[in-house]
Amino acid sequence: MKFKFDANQDYQLKAIEAVTRLFEGHKFVSSDFGFEMGGLPAVPNRLEISEAFLLDNLKKVQQANGIPADSELKYIEGEIQTASGLQVVRFPNFSVEMETGTGKTYVYLRTLLELNKQYGFLKFIIVVPSVAIREGVLKTLKITERHFRELYHNQPYRYYEYQSESLSQVRQFSLSNQVEIMVMTIDSFNKDSNVINQATDRLQGETPIYLIQATRPILILDEPQNMESDIARAALARLNPLFTLRYSATHRNLYNLVYRLTPAQAYQEGLVKRIEVASVIEENNYNHIFVQLEEIRVQKSRISAKVKVHKQMANGTVKEATVTVKPGDNLKDKTGRQEYESFVVEEINPGTNTIVFSNGVELKTGEAKGDNREAIFRAQIAYTIEQHFRTQRRLRDKGIKVLSLFFIDRVESYLSPDGIIRRLFVEEFNRLKVKYREWKDVDPEAVQGSYFSEYKTEKSMENDKAAFDLIMRDKERLLSFSEPTCFIFSHSALREGWDNPNVFIICTLNQTASNIKKRQEIGRGVRLAVNQEGERMRDEQVNILTVVANESYKDYVSKLQTEYMEEYGPGDVPPPPPDARKKGIARLRKEYMLTPEFKELWEKIKHKTRYAVKVDTKRLIDDCVKELDKAVIRSPQIVIQKAQVDMIDENNIQARYIGGGAAEDLSGRYPLPNIVEWIKDETKLTRPTILEILRRTKQKDAAVKNPHEFATTVIRIIKEKLADHLVNGIQYTKIEDCYLMELFQDIEKNQQYLIPAEKSIYDHVVYDSDVERQFAEGLESRKDVKLYVKLPSWFKVSTPVGEYNPDWAIVVEEVNQFGEVTNKLHLVRETKGTSNRSELTPQERRKVDCGEKHFEALGVNYKVVASIDELLP
């Protein structure tokens, strides 16, 4: 298997452009050898753009991406030891937020290649917080290498993992005049004792980090929320970066956010799997004492704890309830049950997150006493195994291998010879496999693989190198049917940085409260699945992730939604995942398909079309010139930055930036590149068209003053305008090829997303949003609507910007004042949150514009609507 990559995904291109546009106005810097910090030889990155320009660019990028503009650049400062002594360094930071599973690593790797292509930057260090993330980055570098070399015309670049025993890499990084990509864990350079921070004979007495400092590397921080401590920030400053780019789905601090792809956007665009939750909990068993520590609260003069217990209610019944306790409280009084008499709160310790009772019971936050742990674990494991068997049977013909991931807290529960989780897995696997002929001869030991934090160091990885290599380094083999491993056991070691597109079930066997957020857990499996050819599957019936949780469905979903709300507010939260145990089926009513109404509707809409694009060259030129004339293309400058130097003590000084400005205009001092060929290669426009744009623009002087920014601005404007013109100039022609009725099948969906239907060809309607649900209810309530169908995901219209799946096909009968049918309408309707197309994203707008022209070629009325009131033409 070889993974295949799509170079034209709109949301990824926007994330890349958001970073590259930060440096518009920056000339292309040639790779000159020189003597840098401390007189060390190096080929460094150079930032030759003023702070004012950079801030202005930042505001423009934020405005273009709908992000509130920052009033200042966010810097990290630090005093560092260099080859020439103590120095204060200061570098700007920029953040990109992308939902897990949408190609964050691909985006930042392609971004650094773009930064080299557009501005000449050469030295990049990808800093990661863990071995797991490091291995994921190195794997992505490997599998994207051929793709990037084709995309960037074999631009040479080297990538490698920093290794303290191979310091020649550091010298190569410093002296090379081509793109260098070094991947480092934060732990490899955040302590004075690290090899990188010590002089060594292997580098002729040089200190390795001084060589890195001299290159002014650009840092890419992967999951930077794990590198926010004072120690981590000081370590990052020690690298003397030019600037840092921070990529995560869950930033703790946003430093100059330039692009955001939220969970709701990823969900709505079908960029990630849908999520469903199956909960396994103990209910209605109050025959034993149950105590669980939920949280500890520290107030000004009071410490208290919330404890979940079995409480006797006023009507005599016993229910699970949460009570608040303080030192000295007796749970007998809180619960009304004599069984709790020995549970007197002796100590509540916020430092260790524990509560101690007088009978010796001690609980950590999340830990429980008295629950039937083994029974719950067994039920979770059994459900996961059977769900795995069923999912694999359903997807095998599509060439998709299914993986299941178990999260556990205690390593010994799996690794110990008598570990409860390993034992239960073997027992349940052997019990269930007899029901599935394709599994009946499979040994449960052969299908297991594991990765735990004990493998943090290279030395300990050797303990289980084969499993580590398979899970962390060889995704292709893991996804092959020839490799038996398909059940993976881990814990927080895989909470970030690792994922696999074919994880379809995640089982959380947590014995105590996990510090893994729900979003981090589900992030291991939300990426869209791939088949044996390495192709992404876009079918929403395939891309479903099931979470098997040992808490109630209601609690799990509530916590997940709370995490989204805290991050994004109520306006940009995806719909709550449904309950996996409440499956439903929208059954096809074949008798409805035989009615004259449906046959006539289907005859109208079933045909496919072929499109041709006719671009009005004159209008394209006019639009490009108009936009180009408004663009601000600034002059390159030499900038002076002023710093105040303070004496800290008799041995140390400190410099603080206090201002600066342009000192000399460098306009016209650079050789004029072949701008026409450059633009032609990037936009695919003809040479005469480009020459006409350049001839007519008022910005001719800018081409001489700052040729690089002029060219990149022209390219950006042409691409934006050309995308609109392709859609505006598209023409569809009806062809004989068509969709067959036989493609309609029953649809399995969670009950949460099914509503009963009388007028649809299905007995239930499947909806994906509140807008769709309300529209379906409106169709059912209108007397003039005779029949409708929610068009399945296989019903697609081809467009220049990707395939488009319209929403609804509807038959409406118009009647006169006497109730007589006067006209029959065949309609196709697209439901959106707004019917104003200018409020849609550019990609959404372009697709519905193409959809309208497709159905126009078929003679079918098409419309974008926000409610049932807008149904009629």
Automatic annotation (TrEMBL):
Residues 85-234 form the Helicase ATP-binding domain. One of its GO terms (molecular function) is type III site-specific deoxyribonuclease activity. It comes from the Bacteria. This is Helicase ATP-binding domain-containing protein. It comes from Thermoclostridium stercorarium subsp. thermolacticum DSM 2910.
